[in-house]
Amino acid sequence: MKLDYNAPVVLTFTLISAAVMVAANSTGGALAYWFSTQPGLSWSDLSTYFRLFSHVFGHANWDHLFGNFTIILLVGPLLEEKYGSQNMVIMITMTALITSLLNNFFFSTGLMGASGIVFMMILLSSFANLKQGRIPLTFVIIVVLFLGKEIYNSLQMDNVSQFAHILGGICGSIFGFSQKDLAALRGTSGAVSSATPKDPFAL
Q: How far is residue 95's CA from residue 109's CA, in Å, rounded to a whole number?
């Protein structure tokens, strides 16, 4: 019996983030700049374009990283199996970019961590049994519990970017609703088809 690298995107994401954490601690936090966004991004600075995406790999401390990846490693492999590795890369990349851009446009705070990705995956997972013409009750409950809590917490001064959490959840909702040809994802019995996952972003 051997170990199976069963979810390459999720596992690689986890390993890179852990490596960044180790490297950041080893350099006294000198790498934090490269794996976070800062208020008032300078578009003339080439590093800005890297950090618009790389901020999801950086974390303030090990507790921050463990909290995020406990959920990502639980939910992510199931999503990667359903949507495919390529689509997972697209969804993670788009969520990272959207959260960093909008956070910079509307707030004077930076971003660091994969919390937006966590909320994207949580909301996206509620679409696992999506049927045409119906809104999953699980989706409604998750929106109320998770996003409702983040909206309430956004009124508190706790140095946590609830805006990124909310945006991540919105991204997950959009990705879930954007699925095309649901019949291609399911067999005649209603189970997920064993064929190559349908690209939910295809026109």
A: 18
- Convert the pLDDT of each residue in 41-88 to its tens digit: 788 889 999 999 999 999 999 999 999 999 999 999 999 999 999 999
State the Cα–Cα distance between residues 149 and 14, nearest whole angstrom: 26
Q: Is the pLDDT of residue 159 over 50?
A: no
Rounded to whole angstroms, the Cα distance separating 182 from 131 reads 8
CB atoms within 10 A of CB 78: 15
* Cα–Cα distance for residue pair 175/119, rounded to 1 Å: 12
The more confident residue out of 143 and 130 is 143
User: Is-contact 126 138, C-beta < 8 A?
Assistant: yes
What's the whole-model pTM score? 0.80
Distances (CA, A) of 164 to 51, 96, 154, 184, 192: 15, 9, 10, 32, 31
Ordered domains of the chain (ranges, CATH): 8-185 (1.20.1540.10)
SS (H, E, C) 119-156: HHHHHHHCCCCCCCCCCCHHHHHHHHHHHHHHHHHCCC
The tokens describing 127, both together, are: 């679409």
Cα–Cα distance between 52 and 37 in angstroms, integer? 7
Cα–Cα distance, 4 to 123 (Å, whole number): 27
Decide: helix, strand or coil at residue 192. strand
